[in-house]
Amino acid sequence: MGWLEAVALAGVRVTAFVVIAPPFSHNAIPMRIKAMLGVGLGVAVAPRVTGDYAPQEIGGFLISLTGELVIGLALGFLVMLAFSAVQSAGSMIDLFGGFQLAQGFDPMSMINGAQFSKLFHLVALALLFVTDGYQLVLGGLFRSFGAIPVGAGLDLPANADLFLGGLGQMFLSALQIAAPLLVVLFLADVGLGLLSRVAPALNAFALGFPLKILLTIVFAGIVVSALPGIVETLTGDAVTALLGLR
């Protein structure tokens, strides 16, 4: 019974993690597949979690199940924060480039954004699979069983700084990713403003939207070409955040 309880607790943590953490959280993966993946990985990690586990009473076991659910969601949230920087960078580009008016809800990714927000999100997910980054994320999840054994519970107040730091790092990373293109768009606005002052009859601001859309499409390739290195860095940050939870 001790082995079965430990595997069940590990399966709950892994299942909660894959439901919220990219790339497994994408709705293209059916929920039953996520549940099967969680149970399978829970069995795979059994040698790590069953050694020091002692069987519990029904009440204690149910409390431990709830605790493992919270831990899995917290770990998945840290990974989601790291990779939300790519989507947020796309949203900034959409906002400053004039694409924000064409935003829509994507039920597969569960995001509300325009073209570049969705594009960056899909590219980041594809790179996670192509570069085997998802294996590093799962490796960080498995190592979390050493830092937080099954049934031990999570000290949320002690980890508040980790969550707040992850949130701040997400905004900073999004700004760093989108910064080159944002600078180009800002200079375009400055140039149009100066042109309208020099030659008011040209009505330079009427050219603002098509010009900024053209510049966004042309220079977005620079940002997209840098995404492989960005995703690699974000994967390392996500694994570090997983190992920092206690």
Folded structure, characterized:
The protein is an all-alpha fold and 246 residues long. The protein has one domain (2-244). It is built from eight helices and two strands, in the order ααααββαααα. The chain has helices at residues 2-20, 31-44, 46-49, 58-97, 115-130, 133-147, 160-198, 208-244; strands spanning 104-106, 111-113. Strands 1-2 form a two-stranded antiparallel ribbon. Helix 4 (58-97) packs parallel to helix 7. The chain is elongated and about 85 Å long. The mean pLDDT is 81.
* Tertiary shape: elongated
- Output the strand order for the largest sheet: 1-2
What is the strand content? under 5%
Radius of gyration based on Cα positions: 22 Å
Total number of distinct structural domains = 1
SSE topology string: HHHHEEHHHH
Number of helices: 8
Number of strands: 2
Low-pLDDT regions: none
- What would the average pLDDT be, to the nearest integer? 81
SS-based class:
mainly alpha
Multimer state: single chain
Report the sheet with the most strands, covering strand number, pairing sense and barrel closure.
Answer: 2 strands, antiparallel
Helical coverage, percent range: over 70%
Termini gap: 27 Å
